Amino acid sequence: MASRARAVLVSLAAVGISLVASNPAFANDTACIHSYEQTQTLRRAGKLREARTEAAKCSSETCPAVLARDCAKWLVDLDQSIPTVVFDVKSATGEELTSVRVLIDGKPLVDKIDGASIALDVGPHTFRFESTDEKGLPAEHQTVIREGERNRRISVTLAAPAAVASVPAAKADRPVPIAAWVFGGAAVASLGVGTVFALSGSSKESDLDKCRPSCGADAVNDASTSYAVADILLSAGVVSALAAATIFITRPTVSSAPATSTTGLVRRRAGLTFEFRALPLLPTARGAREIRRSRSAELACCSAD
To answer: Residue 236: its pLDDT value, please?
Structure first.
């Protein structure tokens, strides 16, 4: 009989345990107890914002009254203890900046400053301010946030971005080589003089037509010579013109970078250049005689001694 009663009690206990475990209210109580404990742990660690989140959970009406009463009181205390800050960021010119990304201890805090207060945990923090519209250089600010501080203003001025010195772009130039001018001038001169000799030869040929067939040999040779000289000069002029055109067309492109210092430097342009150097003077005939006379006097003086 006793064993039978014991079995009934065990069965009832098992049913009761299963009913409690399957009851949502019991599971909710477990979560409330966890939030209750976490609120105290986080508050002691100075993580007031996380502690407030847990206190809000366990202060719910669905939690046991004894837990909810304490959590509600802690929630009020945390709202008064959590410090808040307001950022005031300006440029070097005094312009108030809003397009600023703020990081706290290396972690993103806000992407834009809108004037609203921001809740923080107590303790030392390093803030980094980065202008997203490039109106200032990044800046850091270290400070200690204390419990109970409300709407503490943190003012930062971002230094002006470093001015980038504009470097003039290298200018591409194609200077005309002196050789092109030389050949061009030779071409003009040869063609001009050759044309004169050609006209002279033509005139002399007309004179030969008048005296033919009794023209003298000198007159014939004179006309032939004029034509020969004209042919040589005109051919030389054409060759010179072609050379000048080839040099002009194929001349290289030179990039003339802005000179920073020209002390002791000589800039040479592409093409044919001439350089003149002073040569040692050679003794003239008069100077040679003076040297010989001086040496003779020295020898005579030595012989007398």
So the answer is: 87
